[in-house]
Amino acid sequence: MSAKFLRAAICLSQRQIIPNRFWRNRQAVNRSGQIQSRRRVTDHGEVFTAEREVKAMLDLVKQETERIESRFLEPACGNGNFLAEILRRKLDVVKSRYGNNPPDYEKYAVLAVTSIYGVDILADNVDACQNRMFGIFDDAYAANCREETSNECREAVRHILRHNILCGDALTLKTAEGNPIVFAEWSFVSGCLLKRRDFRLDQMLDGHQEQKSFFMLDWEYDEEIKAFIPLPIREFPPTHYRMVQQYD
Ligand SMILES: C[S@@+](CC[C@H](N)C(=O)[O-])C[C@H]1O[C@@H](n2cnc3c(N)ncnc32)[C@H](O)[C@@H]1O
């Protein structure tokens, strides 16, 4: 994120020194879709990352982007350039493993969606990101499962995206209403049953202690990250993944 802010700052300083050159640069950047408006660059440092850079950066953690359940959080996700590419990569793996089996394809494609999280301070970016992620899921789902697709599953994915891609301030860790940002953790507990547990992002970031102390009586040990994490603020009963939208 700091590189983007730096780039925005460089663009703005060029404008002050060489206005014409800046103007030409700005138009070129606009054509590639990286900037929506000068106002948004000034107010929020919004300069979207080009596809080539997104791919090159994700190649640095290629193995993780190809692990279906590996969790990603982007704290300034914009309209989802990184998250969309992560989802595409995961869905390619789902296709190569389960492409011949529509029920398994569906389950693991949903798992891929559950593992991707984003925050952005601008509500229209959040909407765009949720819709984009849904479109990527749905195109791949329709192509792989054809007449076996279900609208219930689509609704479940929309619901998951509403909980995973949130509008908030990644610096204060609060929503626009001033409430703590809360993310849902989704885990398959057996077969098609998905369990949701909600965690406060600020507590998660404070957490991850390797040693338990007197003040962490309730904290639990997480095998995956090999550290103690705070307790969830809410839990839901294991539910078929197509039905998770029944809880809100
Ligand atoms: C440089 S853009 C990057 C967008 C996207 N990650 C990409 O690479 O294409 C920075 C993004 O951060 C968002 N942003 C700025 N301040 C933020 C904050 N305090 N919390 C969350 N998002 C913020 C902006 O709305 C913008 O979408």
Q: Can you describe this structure?
A:
The chain is α/β, with parallel strands linked by helices and 248 residues long. The chain has helices at residues 2-17, 19-31, 38-44, 51-59, 62-65, 81-98, 102-114, 123-145, 151-164, 201-206; strands at 72-74, 116-120, 165-167, 182-190, 193-200, 220-222, 227-229, 234-235, 239-240. It is built from 10 helices and 9 strands. Strands 4, 5, 8 and 9 form a 4-stranded antiparallel beta sheet that branches. Strands 1-2-3 form a 3-stranded parallel beta sheet. Strands 6-7 form a two-stranded antiparallel ribbon. It is globular, with a radius of gyration of 20 Å. It starts with a helix and ends in an 8-residue tail after the last strand. S-adenosylmethionine binds at residues 4, 44-49, 74, 76-78, 81-82, 119-122, 125, 169-171.
In short:
With 248 residues, the protein is an alpha/beta fold. The chain has helices at residues 2-17, 19-31, 38-44, 51-59, 62-65, 81-98, 102-114, 123-145, 151-164, 201-206; strands at residues 72-74, 116-120, 165-167, 182-190, 193-200, 220-222, 227-229, 234-235, 239-240.
Helical run tally: 10
**Whole-number mean pLDDT:** 87
- Poorly predicted spans: 1-29
Structural class: alpha/beta
Number of strands: 9
- Beta-strand residue percentage: 15-25%
Which small compounds were modeled alongside the protein?
Answer: S-adenosylmethionine
Give helix and strand order, one letter per element, not per position.
HHHHHEHHEHHEEEHEEEE
Name the shape in a single word.
globular
Q: Separation of termini?
A: 32 Å
Rg (C-alpha, Å): 20 Å
Helical residues, percent? 40-55%
Largest sheet properties: 4 strands, antiparallel
> Multimeric state of these chains?
single chain
